Amino acid sequence: MKRRDFLIGGALGTMAAGSALAAPAPKGRKPAAPKPKAIIALDAGHGGKDPGTIGVGGTFEKDITFAVARGLAHRLEASGRYQIVLTRTDDSFIALGERVRSARASRAQLFLSLHADSVPNPRQRGFSVYTLADEASDAMTAGLAVRENAVDRLGGLDLSRHPQAVRTILLDLMHRETANNASLMAETVVTKLHPPFTPLQKPHRQANFAVLRAPDIPSILVEMGFLSNLDDEKLLNQTSYQAKLADRLVIALDGFFARVPAA
Ligand SMILES: [Zn+2]
Prior knowledge:
This protein is of the alpha/beta class. The protein has 8 helices and 6 strands. It folds into 2 domains: 34 residues, no CATH class; 223 residues, 3-Layer(aba) Sandwich (Aminopeptidase), CATH 3.40.630.40.
């Protein structure tokens, strides 16, 4: 790697350096810093020995989630606005807690988990978007106040110097902001997934899913449709439908990060 590439970052960086030499910035004015890329953790549900739900026609949920996650990651990275962390990069089994841990270790600013649903009623169709249930969320904040395992994410604030009561308030505030942003993202996905995507009744739902429990990363889980329904299963297997879904999710993510800018 050439030194200049290292400093500025790849081929585009080298070009930028060239044009900067040709036209120096006026004195006293610093060139605008590049916008930071938002880091998104994309979580393809299930994998390896865990196929997820199995469709009426034999589709494995893990294959659909992986196909959509990969397509979405490709689009987001190609936009130049995002850095993507995939919680799994192949057909391997990754424990739920490990998915959240890797997202936190990568300092992801949003966690998006992809799944497909299944119910006994074969007529049930449509997508839904989940955020963490309030009770689970409250219990977690209480636990956090004791364990303080979110300290490193509070903008470098050293919580240990504050009294316990202040720590509890700060953690509670952080957690509320996380929950509010998760709701905003869920609502944004619901509004951007218009036809051919059909929503369930009240498509924004709450549940105590383990992958939604990061205290400091807004997290949502999208159930893309029902593999227990023949029509949904057929659509979810179509690459054109998967591509359209990924396109809409990019629009939703752009909308979210327009309101909640990358740090
Ligand atoms: Zn699932």
